[in-house]
Specification:
With about 500 residues, the chain is α/β, with parallel strands linked by helices. It has 14 helices and 19 strands. The protein has two domains: about 120 residues, Leucine Aminopeptidase, subunit E, domain 1 (3-Layer(aba) Sandwich), CATH 3.40.220.10; about 325 residues, Aminopeptidase (3-Layer(aba) Sandwich), CATH 3.40.630. The strands form four sheets. The protein has an eight-stranded mixed sheet, sandwiched between helices. A six-stranded mixed sheet has the order 1-6-5-2-4-3, with helices on both faces.
Length: about 500
């Protein structure tokens, strides 16, 4: 498909990046090194331990520190040869939490050793492979560093030295883990960027780096979107000085034509448009592109571990601004699918850009399954808080796979309904659909899901409303405050469980 002349590039075109564009792939994740020897004395060292498995030589030190090995416990002690030793409790099986809790302690407390501790040893020699990988994963996720834009010196990138008994037996698992970590880090780094740095065009430029991993990248600019009839995406983005675009990432895989298609909302900033948001908290709307970032991160994770599953991500990138050409409540907009939509609230822009992205995916990618990720509604936060994403869908097996992938990776979801009443609320007298219902105390997350269902066109589809879980207000063992990377691990696990085996039932 031709690329619009006003914005964007494709693999067959070259363009000099504009000032401020960064086409390097940055993840902010620690570097990992696998070794088969013991940690060096004098280096900051993490030792994960389960309940009842404290070595005799450390029993007295652990008892004095009140350490039992319970899940989430982390204490910093001094032992012979190890002046800075962190004992991390895994309980019975919480190895990832042990790694994250230990890193949180090292991050929060001043260094015991002279100078900044930028190299940390993980003594994993007594653990089975699965537990060792989990500890390293937790430590790396907690050790992620956001992009820093200040005059103070930027600390060196953290290095984690993984000391294991038989490194040759873990090398493949570590490579797979690094792929997932790269995807999460890429997602978090994108979400952390301010909106003046990550405009739709610059977001697209960042995605170009995925070509180095074998991902093909196509960018549809304004001209191509007009030709395709993407009226909803164009309407949402038309008042901004930074035009919208649709980015398509394709990982070819090797298992045939049964393709998983991911669809992500990429609002690089959302003022609410004419239906403008209150000033308090509006700065957080720079994270309104977390769904698109998660889809991109998942594609990177799958490419890094050379997944056999063919996967496409369709990302709708735009900025929702007021202005003399802004879309208005009451406007009737023709979408890419051909359906007309009556606008009720320009702050309900996410479902509009997703409508065109879903329709494009169905028309051009012929998906076996569709999964969309969207920071969509405040009502899902009211329902589920900051603990789980809302999951809606039309296909029971796909819903089960997504739910299982969420539980396995910690990107937890909760199944929510789409009922007849939710569909009834979207009837319009002047268009095929109303964009949303009006009035207070509406089940808006359910209405949004009912709206988006039309554009999945009967394809097995799951919609994840990730508002409330895309960022965290306070640091914990899972990561520092800020972007969480929610969805990357879930999507990578979903692809592995459902789409990587060509002979699956």
């Amino acid at each position: 498909m031709a690329c619009g002349c006003s914005i964007g590039w494709s693999p067959t075109m070259t363009r000099t990046p504009e000032a401020g564009e960064d086409t390097n792939l940055k993840t902010g994740m620690p570097r990992l090194r696998l070794r088969g020897d013991a940690p060096k004395p004098g280096r900051s060292t993490i030792l994960p331990l389960a309940i009842g498995e404290i070595p005799a030589g450390l029993a007295e030190v652990a008892a004095a520190a009140g350490f039992s090995g319970a899940a989430g416990e982390a204490v910093r002690v001094s032992a012979p040869g190890f002046p800075d030793l962190v004992l991390a409790g895994a309980g019975m099986d919480a190895w990832e939490r042990a790694g994250g809790s230990a890193m949180a302690l090292l991050d929060a407390a001043p260094p015991v050793l002279a100078g900044p501790a930028r190299r940390i040893a993980l003594d994993l020699r007594g653990l089975p492979p699965r537990a060792a990988i989990a500890v390293a994963t937790g430590a790396a996720l907690r050790g992620w560093t956001p992009p820093i834009r200040r005059q103070a010196p930027v600390p060196k990138r953290l290095r984690l030295i993984l000391h294991v008994a038989e490194p040759e037996n873990l090398a493949e698992d570590v490579l797979a883990m690094q792929g997932v970590l790269a995807g999460v880090g890429f997602c978090r780094t994108l979400v952390a960027e301010p909106a003046n740095i990550l405009t739709p065009r610059r977001f697209a430029a960042r995605l170009r780096a995925l070509q180095d991993d074998g991902v093909t990248v196509e960018v549809m600019g304004v001209g191509a979107l007009r030709a395709a009839g993407a009226g909803a995406l164009l309407a949402v983005g038309r008042a901004s000085a930074h035009p919208p675009c649709l980015v398509i990432l394709r990982w070819p895989g090797t298992t045939g034509d049964e393709r998983l298609v991911l669809v992500g909302k990429g609002m690089t900033f959302d003022t609410g448009g004419i239906s403008i948001k209150p000033a308090a908290g509006m700065q957080d709307m720079r994270a309104d592109m977390a769904g698109a970032a998660a889809c991109a991160g998942a594609v990177l994770a799958l490419a890094r571990r050379r997944s056999p599953a063919p996967v496409t991500a369709v990302l709708a990138l735009a900025e929702n601004m007021p202005g003399r050409d802004a879309w208005r409540p009451g406007d009737v907009i023709r979408t890419l699918s051909g359906r007309s939509v009556e606008t009720i609230d320009t702050d309900a822009e996410g479902r509009m850009v997703l409508a065109d992205a879903l329709a494009w995916a169905v028309r051009h990618e012929h998906p076996a399954a569709l999964v969309d990720l969207v920071t969509l509604t405040g009502s899902i936060v009211t329902a589920l808080g900051h603990h789980r994403a809302g999951m809606f869908g039309t296909d029971a097996p796909l819903l089960a796979h997504v739910g299982g992938a969420g539980e396995a990776t910690g990107d937890a979801v909760w199944h929510m309904p789409i009922g007849a009443a939710h569909e009834e609320a979207l009837k319009s007298d002047i268009a095929d659909l109303r964009q949303c219902a009006s009035g207070r105390l509406q089940p808006d997350a359910c209405h949004a899901a009912a709206f988006l269902r039309h554009f999945a066109e009967g394809i097995p589809w799951v919609h994840l409303d990730i508002a409330g879980v895309e960022t965290r207000e306070e640091a914990d063992w899972r990561g520092p405050a800020g972007p969480t990377g929610f969805g990357v691990r879930l999507l990578a696990a979903l692809a592995a469980a459902r789409f990587e085996d060509p002979h699956r039932a």
